[in-house]
Design goal:
RRM domain-containing protein; 27% helix; Nucleotide-bd_a/b_plait_sf; 5-stranded antiparallel sheet; elongated; 3-stranded antiparallel sheet; RBD_domain_sf; nucleic acid binding; 5 helices; PAR10_RRM1_2
Length: 150
């Protein structure tokens, strides 16, 4: 399956209420009458959100268009997951006291980049930086302890 096909079949559920388990989510989102969904390929619970992958893009589209989903007397917020941009990386966990120059040096050393290959955009509080690359990285370009979160 292509990456575009996977993206079209994926739905994200935000702010998952406590007490909702994987089996209940499978049953609800596979029930076409209640959720608009259909057969699921996978359900992945990540803290207070869930990533659902349907077998068919049409099922994901119906779930997104339905708008109102209630499980355990709690309304669920569903959306299409944010697109992954191979030219943007998020560098998180930065101390607000770390200078932008230090972050620049770290990025250049860990990713083997020149200062013209990227742009750094700090968050207002300085705890993360968006790295906007002029072109996508090759697989061998990311150094040992640098992890990408799209």
């Amino acid at each position: 399956m292509s990456a575009v096909s996977l993206e079209e079949r994926t739905v994200e559920v935000l702010e998952l209420p406590g007490g909702v388990d994987e089996e209940l989510l499978y049953l609800y989102f596979e029930n076409k009458r209640r959720s608009g969904g259909g057969p699921l390929e996978s359900v992945e619970i990540k803290q207070d959100r869930v990533v659902l992958v349907f077998e068919e893009a049409e099922a994901a589209s119906r779930v997104l268009s339905k708008g109102h989903h209630v499980v355990h007397n709690s309304e669920l917020s569903v959306r299409k997951p944010p697109s992954k941009d191979p030219c943007r990386l998020l560098l998180r966990g930065i101390s607000p006291y770390t200078s932008a120059e230090m972050v620049e040096l770290y990025v250049e050393n860990m990713m083997d980049l020149n200062d013209t290959d990227y742009t750094l955009m700090p968050s207002p509080e300085g705890s993360f930086f968006l790295i906007h690359l002029s072109q996508p990285l090759s697989k061998g370009q990311i150094g040992g302890h640098f992890y990408c979160h799209a």
